[in-house]
Specification:
Elements (H helix, E strand, L loop, with lengths): L36 H14 L4 H10 L9 H12 L4 H11 L5 H13 L40 H10 L3 H13 L5 H14 L2 H14 L5 H9 L4
Helix pairs in contact: 1-2, 2-3, 3-4, 6-7, 7-8, 9-10
Length: 237
Amino acid sequence: MFKKLLGGEISQPLPELPMVFALSQDKSLHLTQNQDPTKVWRYLSHLIRRSPHNLSAHVQRIFLSQHGLLKECLAGSLQDLFIALGDAGHLLRERMFQIVKPDLEPTELNFFETWLEQDLIQPVNQRWHKGSQLCTGLENQGKKLVTVERTVVTEYANIMDEVFACLEYGQIDTARDLLEGEILAGRIDHVVEQELINIYQYTRDKERLAAMVEHIKQSGQPLDPIWIEKQLESDQW
């Protein structure tokens, strides 16, 4: 599930985005050059109004807003992602902010930095930024237009269904804890290992990676070579 989402040619290398949400189709989050940017941006805005937690649409629209005349809508596009995620998906919010940071105005930088630092559902001084579809436009009275929650009473067919549900809602720490629990209980399989390794890599958590490698060794269970490979790579994280 945590696969590379960025595709196509871009002017400069960007950080890889993990698959922390499910995509309905296997397609790039970057749009092809033969598409009209303004029309696509409006279409994505329509999708977001109808389905505010369509995270792939949010990410596409943010990337699109980095170019040309749509730059004036960049802050509003990022604002909508923050509103949709609320206090969940901190890593996705942080990653997207870092990607577009060079294109934001100083006041916009301060706005999003404060939002991330306080980790609120919405900041106290929520003001509308051009392009936003989800903000009420009322200063000091920011109100979330949609509440996205994962029902705690949901019963899942297996642990991976629950893990993927967590990832869809940006609950990466919870997904990681579930996967670690499986391995610590001796229930190791390739899918569990691969998802946990991908989370470690995305969060740059070399300490947890090393600790899990040591646990598997000490437990006497077979250690998949991918663990050693990623542990060596983690020196560059």
